[in-house]
Amino acid sequence: MPPITRRRTIALAAASLAPALASPALAPSAFAQGRFPDRPIRLVIPWPAGGSADAQLRSMGEIASRALGQPVVLENKPGAGGTLGPMTVAQQSRPDGYTLTQMHLSVLRRPWMMKAPLWDPVRDFTHIIGLTGWLFGTAVKADSRFATWQEMIAYARANPGKLTYSTSGIGTSNHLAMETLLEMEKVEITHVPFRGSNEGVTAALAGQVDMVSDSSAWAPFVEAGSMRALSVWTAERAARFPTVPTLKELGYDMEVTSPYGVSGPKGMDEGVVQVLHDAFKAALFDPENERIRGQFDMPLVYRNTEDYRDFVARRVDYEKMMVKRLNLTLDG
């Protein structure tokens, strides 16, 4: 693979995570103390309010509250690339089931981007349930020279380094996926990272980058006719874009949805985990939550507790490999 200028050292506000992970004393079984839950449950969202994950989890929490008999209260705690919230839960919360967090791929990836990992994604959490992910894809301006993904790849092969693509940041799932695709094709396209997918879409519409490779912030512009989607990265074609091929249809054995779930501190009682899993699963499949996921093009990626823990362990191995391959490092 040709040298990649985007393999640059990344700045991260990791200072806030510097204290070594604490090991909260294990609480007695919630069932030994009475019915679980007997007070509100706090679900920490590591992003600002108003995004797709916030909306999906807020809906799920409201629905799950009915079965649990207690409110599920969302707390937005953004920072440190989406890892501050989960780390706060791991470091400062008792494993009694009353403090949970969204678990996403950056939490699995970022320890291996540090010289000295501050947490272990497998050992330092109790993983409960896998939920959903995002619709990712590649889109260009409507007047782009490229009508298809294949035309774009052919041009990139004939013109190394002349094309650019945007993502929502170095080391994100979509960045790693694009690097994998380019490596498969043995082509060089310059990566231009932004702080979020909306900024990348704006840059593509302004002609500052040739295409955007990110979550579906581009979708409304494709529907409006100002952008053209070249690929989607889900297992099946997106219902909103039935003519746009998947990566598998384009010849790549890949599916990229950046799936996330819900986890708690390490050492949680397995009976409590079962109660939470069952309530969240019922909420996930509730028609109202399905409506919210459809609104944001979020594919269903349900995994039960055992399968989700297995997924996390296997995904950590993959993230370690990709971080090493792309030489992704963090300062601080």
Automatic annotation (TrEMBL):
Keywords, sorted A to Z: Signal
Signal peptide extent: 1-27
Protein name: Tripartite tricarboxylate transporter substrate binding protein
CDD domains tied to this protein: PBP2_Bug_TTT
InterPro entries attached to this UniProt entry: BUG, Bug_dom1, TAT_signal
PANTHER family: BLR1237 PROTEIN (PTHR42928:SF5), TRICARBOXYLATE-BINDING PROTEIN (PTHR42928)
Record-stated family: Belongs to the UPF0065 (bug) family.
UniProt key word Signal: yes
Source organism per UniProt: Belnapia arida
SUPFAM superfamilies: Periplasmic binding protein-like II
